Amino acid sequence: SDPAVASIVPDAQKKARPRQQQTALTREGGKSLLPFSRVQKIMKADKELPTVAKEATFLISLATEEFIKRITEASQRVAIRDKRVTVQQKDIASVVRKADEFLFLE
Amino acid sequence: MSDREAHSGPPGTDEDLSLPKATVAKMITELLPNDVTCAKETRDLIIECCVEFIHLISSEANEICEQDSKKTIAPEHIISALRRLGFESFTEEVEEVLKDHKQAQKDREKKGSKLEQSGLTEEELLAKQQELFAQSRAKFESGQQQ
After folding, report:
1. H or E stretch including B37?
2. What is the ipTM of this complex?
3. Per-residue pLDDT at B143
C-alpha cells in the first residue's frame, strides 16, 4: 500500500471511536495533519493578531481539519443528490449558502 | 535609467499563505467514498475556504482575548471562538485530539527525565557503569582462581 497514505491512517490508530465511521479521517496520536508553520504563517498575515500560544495555533490547525471534513462531506452529499461522482465548485457554493456558520465564506 | 520593480503578486496569492495542496488533496480523498472524486479546482477552493476559516477564528479569538485582558491568544480563546461562531460541534473533536497531544507530550517528557531522575550526570553514570564492570570482572577472576 502507498506509504504516504499510511502515514495519515497508521495502523496504531485502531482505538475504538464510536463516532468515526470507515470514511472518517484518523489522526496520529495528538498530531495535526496540517503543517504547523503554514497555519502559523497564515495567522501572522493578520497584523492585528498579538502573540498566539503554540497550543492555540495547534487547535486552529485541528479545527481547520474538522472544517475540511465537514465541508467535504456536505459537498459530497450535494454532488450525490445531483447524481454526480465528482464534487464540483458549485457543490461547495451550495453548502456555503445553506449553512449559517459558513456564511463568512460568501 | 529605469527602476526595476521586483515582481510581486497581489497579496493573498502567496503560496506560503495557503495549505499544502498535496496534504489537503489526500485528506479529501480519504474523506470521500471510493467512487467519488473531487475536481482539482474544487480542492483549491476548499483550501481558500480554509484560509478564510483560519482568519475568521483568529479574529474572533483575538476579540475574546482582548475581552479577557490577555496579551496572548490562548487555546481557551480558540475554543470560545469556535463556540461563538457556531462551530460548537468542532470543539468536541478538537479537544479530544488536544488530550492525545498533551499525553504524547507527557510521554516524551517522561522518557527524557528518566535519565535526569537518577540525579547523576552522564559522566557520573559512565563512571558507575565502569565500576560495575570492574566489580563483575573481579568476581569472575576470583571465581576462576578457585
Report:
1. strand B37-38
2. 0.71
3. 77
